[in-house]
Amino acid sequence: MNTLYTKMSSLHFEPDDSWQHVIIGDQNICKDCQSKACLTICPTEVFLWNHADNTPIGVLYKQCIECGACRLVCPFKNIEFCYPKGGYGVMYTEEHPIS
Predict the structure, then answer these.
(1) End-to-end CA distance of the chain
(2) pLDDT at residue 19 tops 60
C-alpha cells in the first residue's frame, strides 16, 4: 500500500542554500491568525511554531515538496511561494504501472 509518507520518502530534494523559495510575508499578520492552518496542512511540516504568542512561525523551506497547499489555506494570503530555480527543489519521477 502506497501512503503519502511512502511516496514522499521517494522524492529527491536538491535545496538551494542561497535562496528561500517559501517565506511568510509579514509575521505580524500571522499573530492575528486564529487557525494557523499552514501548521497543519503542510505534509512535510515546513511551518513550525512553538505556540508562544510573540514568537514567529519558522519556515523550513528545504523540506518543501512544492505542493502549494500553504498558499491556498492562508486566509491572509501571507505566504509567498516561488518555485525554486532550475535544478533545485523537488525532482519528481513518474511511476509507470507494469502491464
Answers:
(1) 18
(2) yes
